[in-house]
Amino acid sequence: MNLGEQTRSLIALVEADRERQCDAIRGEALARASALRRQAQAEARARVREAFEEERARMAAAIGAAQAHLQTLRRLNDQQRAAQVLSLAADRLPAELARRWGDPAARAAWVARVAAAARAALQPGDWRFVHAPGWSAAERDAFTRSAISGAGVRAVFEEDASLQVGLKVVASGNVVDGTLGGLLADRDAIGAQLLHLLEGES
Question: What span, in angstroms and rounded, lies between the C-alpha atoms of 103 and 123?
Answer without folding.
Answer: 30
